[in-house]
Amino acid sequence: MKADSVGLLMRKRLFIGLLAISLLFLILLFAGAWWLVSYRGLTINKIILALITAAAAFLLLMLLTGLVAMVWSLWRARTIPPLHNIMLSATNILFPLAVAIGKGLGLGEDRIKNSFINVSNHLVRGRNYPRPLNRIMILAPHCLQWVHCPHKITIDVGNCRECGRCPVSTLLRLARRYDVQLKVVTGGTSARKAVKDVKPEAVVAIACERDLTSGIQDIAGLPVIGVVNERPEGPCFNTRVDYAKVEEAIQFFIKGGLK
């Protein structure tokens, strides 16, 4: 038993070490801040404080610009192409804080993340693409598959017998109609692997609010339209999807977005 305990501790030493380094970093950060404030009369401290203030002001200005541009874009249903990346950066930087504040105000996490997905979709749809996007991937969760189905489709979606008991058969027909890839994944790790292997130009992602939110942030820079799944029998169990939304997203990318 003692040997097992030692082995368990050794296997966890990486995380424990990282925690210790993180604590040391925070101590040094607070000590440095205290030194700067206590001896701010020194020339070097004045320079450092000026640089920190300038960097903070630049970051706040960028976030404010991104937020104002986003509100204008949503209000006018038009995009501002030069500010697109700033809007995305502001969204991703402020998102964790927005979730924490929303939860503190009693708002449901799924409701907040659903709103994030809608904003993200709007920003993607507001872009002008130089040409039609041909390499499109539909990324679907395995919970769409009928729970009693004996066929493994996460390895090869071609194993689906298209019996019609679940949405996968309809998604396969959509994929064939528009000549796009369909991948059924078990979670975030397999989703990232699918994106890395296929290297699509755009993704139509189907998932719950939590997985969609993390997925959109994981593959930032790649156009993603998220479609929240429907869960009539509860999460991760015989879920459904609005096919019209999936098809409309595919058509949007094929047409090259707005012109």
Fold blueprint:
Layout: H1 2-11, H2 13-38, H3 43-76, H4 84-104, H5 109-125, E1 136-141, H6 168-178, E2 181-185, H7 188-198, E3 202-207, H8 209-218, E4 224-228, H9 243-254
Parallel strand pairs: 1-2, 1-3, 3-4
Description:
- The chain is an alpha/beta fold.
- The protein has 3 domains: 2-38; 43-122, no CATH class; 131-254, Rossmann fold (3-Layer(aba) Sandwich), CATH 3.40.50.
- The protein has 9 helices and 4 strands, in the order αααααβαβαβαβα.
- The protein has a 4-stranded parallel sheet with strand order 2-1-3-4, with helices on both faces.
- Strand 3 (202-207), helix 8 and strand 4 (224-228) form a beta-alpha-beta unit.
- The longest helix is centred in the first third of the chain and has 34 residues, at 43-76.
- The radius of gyration is 23 Å and the shape is globular.
